[in-house]
Amino acid sequence: MGSPDFNLLLTLDVLLAEGSVAGAAKRLRLSASAMSRALARLRETTGDPLLVRAGRRLVPTPRALALREQVRQLVLDTETVLRPDQTLDLGKLERVYTLRTSDGFVETFGPKLIAMVGKDAPGVRLNFIQKTDKDSAPLREGRVDLETGVVEESMGPEVRSVALFRDKLIGAVRPGHPLASGKITAKRYKESAHVIVSRSGAEDAATDLPFIPAGLNRKVAAIVGGFSAALALARGSDLVATVPDRHTATLHKGMFTFPLPLPTKGFTVSMLWHPRMDGDPAHKWLRSCVRNVCALEKERA
Predict the structure, then answer these.
(1) Which of 70, 121, 262, 297 is in the most buried spot, having the most CB atoms within 10 Å?
(2) pLDDT over 90 percentage in the chain
(3) What whole-number distance in Å separates Cα of residue 35 and Cα of residue 50?
């Protein structure tokens, strides 16, 4: 057996990303016939068809799916080795970072993060997008640079994480709400009308369910997709919003907040990223900014 052709790694990476011979050929600026020959060589080398036809499109085989992440990392590592060593100059850095977070995180930490980033690197832009699910695919595929949230056991090993702060659930109501006076008991809390947060819109998928007693029977009057909407409704009505305290500190200012009158679990909000960004100096700097902003808020809390 001869020496392996490492150029095939790049070809395989692009083929698996595009799922199309024509798309991969265009991206690598090759002819369709040249890409077809490369796919044939890959099939011969790996002993697997890799991409098979399903109707009008190609779909990856189980072997291809197993190889995809490994191949992607090998290509990125090779690019890092061959890239000239450059000292990070924040003043000249021009980059767009996409952060996938909740609306509460953006309103509480976003302004200070933007100020910190802008002071050191005025050429950097931060794009905040709403976190609508727990899928780590956007991190793996490079569509998202950083994410915040609660790390679950189902999170794949291909995702790195570091704790930012501890948080707990609280209740929030408008000033003058019946719960704003007198002792707040579990009975009074449960019998009040609630607005809950659920990304899917389903009551059994409420974001606070993992942290409250199982089987808690609340009177749900409204379901919204984010903490900002939940607190806006509670601020202007007699609804009760159950939200993370520190995560939504800016959002619930001026409202009457209280500890939940039932046993709850605290949780850790973490920052997540893909390991291919571990050694990137600009990404490491951004991670340090996020940590520092959260630490500053912790000191003020």
Answers:
(1) 121
(2) 50
(3) 14
